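Figure 3 (text version): structure tokens given as input.
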């Protein structure tokens, strides 16, 4: 089991490294350098929110609630980007269901399942949210 825990700790370290902004060059695409945040966003979020985060992804039209324009998260909150609040929104597990059902996936559940649940699952949730939130902050308009 010791090798396993060690491996998981280095995954955690890697996620933290990414979260503080180490750009991960995307191999295979000539000249293209994408940050991890941009890659995650492209994979998990762009279908609805669009690659630029403006709420115009290919799936947007088929949703009952239009996906939020993610370049205006701070603008909608008087220029503030409240990390905890946005993390909880994206995670979704602590949200009280209000009107109708939420159309955005409960990312906390998905990311935890990707990590196999338990403590490792929670680490994956935390790591992914950090990477994604850092990227979202770069998208904010003045
Ligand atoms: C299936 C479509 C869909 C996907 C995929 C999706 N979202 Fe959303 N998102 C929505 C919709 C629709 C809303 C508007 C609120 C609601 O109905 O849930 C929303 C709202 C949000 C908000 C709230 C914005 C605000 O200012 O209150 C944030 C933040 C957000 N999404 C981030 C993300 C991130 C990060 C991802 C990728 C991990 C993602 N979304 C993936 C559909 C989606």
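Below: residues designed for each position.
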């Amino acid at each position: 089991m010791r090798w396993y825990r060690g491996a998981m700790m280095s995954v955690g370290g890697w996620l933290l490294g990414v979260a503080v902004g180490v750009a991960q060059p995307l191999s295979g695409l000539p000249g293209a350098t994408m940050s991890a945040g941009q890659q995650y966003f492209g994979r998990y979020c762009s279908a609805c929110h669009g690659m630029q985060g403006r709420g115009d992804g290919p799936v947007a039209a088929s949703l009952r609630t239009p996906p939020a324009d993610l370049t205006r998260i701070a603008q909608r909150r008087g220029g503030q980007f409240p990390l905890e609040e946005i993390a909880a929104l994206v995670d979704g597990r602590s949200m009280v269901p209000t009107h109708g059902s939420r159309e955005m996936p409960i990312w906390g559940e998905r990311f935890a399942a990707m990590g196999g649940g338990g403590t490792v699952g929670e680490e994956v949730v935390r790591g992914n949210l950090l990477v994604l939130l850092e990227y979202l902050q770069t998208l904010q308009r003045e």
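The pocket of heme C is lined by residues 44-45, 47-49, 59, 63, 65, 67-68, 70, 73, 76, 86, 89-90, 102-105, 107, 132 (CB under 6 Å).
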